[in-house]
């Protein structure tokens, strides 16, 4: 008796389980009628179309307000890194072997093409010691302050085409990375030191390694197309005692509010490179 009752109950269970997927009596699928499902699908379709529409509209409005000439959403101006030319942090060469330093000399020469005095004549002769601000000009393209390679004197590659490499007194050029809107306070200059007991003599061009304020601010790639970064050249006046030794030279931007001692970023406002000259 009990067993037939069980079987009946079992049958009931199975059919109600099947019914929960598809109930042929009511035509319900997963507990909903076809029209109910259609309504749900329709609701989601409309809902997602609406979301996509909203997204497209906001994007479109935002893109309309963007201007190629004016960078937007700058909450703070980052600090610039310092880089050197020749483009190598290990400048090791044999001063008696021009093939060994030709690469560095070519690197400097091609880098300085943009600073050709004839090219730079076209740019503005700006007032020294003052920012060259052009926020209120009608012009979309900003003017550029001239920086002639001639001002690098012995490191210009004009009087000495080997940039001092052949005489064992090599020049290294330093520049700060371009940062839009950067206006360094104070009077920035480059100071290089060699980690060594006896100091190594150096010459700076322009004098005292000064970076003039007139080259700031920079207005961006498009607005300030022909902008040239100010350069500082350092000529290491090495003597025979300093040959055949790896010298570690550290250069920093000093005299301004630019950071040069960030623990995590070794290139922020400073750079360390190695030099070794052999005969
Ligand atoms: C440097 O080059 C000169 C000339 O090629 C050569 O005589 C000299 O041995 C080289 N010095 C070193 C340390 O390789
Ligand atoms: C820059 O000047 C040098 C030497 O005066 C010359 O050889 C070179 O062709 C010039 N380059 C440009 C781009 O004017
Ligand atoms: C350059 O840096 C060295 C080492 O930090 C320092 O002793 C020297 O006074 C600095 N020179 C100038 C002109 O700031």
From TrEMBL:
One Pfam family matching this protein: Na_K-ATPase
Cellular component, GO, one term: sodium:potassium-exchanging ATPase complex
Superkingdom classification of source: Eukaryota
Subcellular location, record wording: Cell membrane; Membrane
Molecular function terms, GO-annotated: ATPase activator activity
Swiss-Prot/TrEMBL keywords: Cell membrane, Disulfide bond, Glycoprotein, Ion transport, Membrane, Potassium, Potassium transport, Signal-anchor, Sodium, Sodium transport, Sodium/potassium transport, Transmembrane, Transmembrane helix, Transport
Record-linked Gene3D superfamilies: 1.20.5.170, Na, k-atpase alpha subunit
Transmembrane region(s): 37-66
Mode of membrane association: Single-pass type II membrane protein
InterPro entries (UniProt xref): Na/K_ATPase_sub_beta (IPR000402), Na/K_ATPase_sub_beta_sf (IPR038702)
GO biological-process terms attached to the record: intracellular potassium ion homeostasis; intracellular sodium ion homeostasis; potassium ion import across plasma membrane; sodium ion export across plasma membrane
Main location group: membrane
Family assignment from sequence similarity: Belongs to the X(+)/potassium ATPases subunit beta family.
Purpose of the protein: This is the non-catalytic component of the active enzyme, which catalyzes the hydrolysis of ATP coupled with the exchange of Na(+) and K(+) ions across the plasma membrane. The exact function of the beta-3 subunit is not known.
NCBIfam families to which the protein is assigned, alphabetical: Na_K_ATPase_bet
Protein name listed in UniProt: Sodium/potassium-transporting ATPase subunit beta
Source organism: Channa argus (Northern snakehead)
């Amino acid at each position: 008796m009990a067993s037939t009752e069980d079987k009946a109950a079992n049958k009931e269970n199975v059919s109600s389980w099947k019914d929960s997927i598809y109930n042929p009596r009511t035509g319900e699928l997963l507990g909903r009628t076809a029209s109910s499902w259609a309504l749900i699908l329709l609701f989601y379709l409309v809902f997602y179309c609406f979301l996509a529409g909203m997204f497209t509209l906001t994007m479109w409005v935002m893109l309309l307000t963007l201007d190629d000439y004016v960078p937007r959403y700058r909450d703070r101006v980052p600090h610039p890194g310092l880089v050197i030319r020749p483009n190598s942090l290990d400048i090791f060469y044999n001063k008696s072997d021009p093939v060994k330093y030709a690469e560095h000399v070519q690197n400097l020469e091609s880098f300085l093409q943009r600073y050709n005095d004839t090219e730079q004549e076209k740019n503005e002769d700006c007032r020294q010691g003052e920012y060259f601000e052009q926020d209120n000009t009608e012009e979309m393209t900003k003017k550029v302050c001239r920086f002639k390679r001639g001002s690098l004197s012995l490191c210009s590659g004009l009087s000495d085409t080997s940039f001092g490499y052949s005489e064992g007194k090599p020049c290294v050029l330093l520049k700060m990375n371009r940062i839009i809107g950067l206006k360094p306070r104070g009077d920035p200059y480059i100071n290089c030191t060699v980690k060594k007991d006896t100091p190594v003599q150096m010459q700076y061009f322009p004098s005292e390694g000064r970076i003039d304020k007139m080259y700031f601010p920079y207005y961006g790639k498009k607005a300030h197309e022909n902008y040239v970064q100010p350069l500082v050249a350092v000529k290491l006046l090495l003597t025979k005692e300093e040959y055949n030794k790896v010298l570690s030279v550290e250069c920093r931007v000093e005299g301004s509010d630019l950071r040069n001692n960030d623990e995590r970023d070794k290139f922020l406002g400073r750079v360390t490179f190695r030099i070794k000259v052999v005969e």
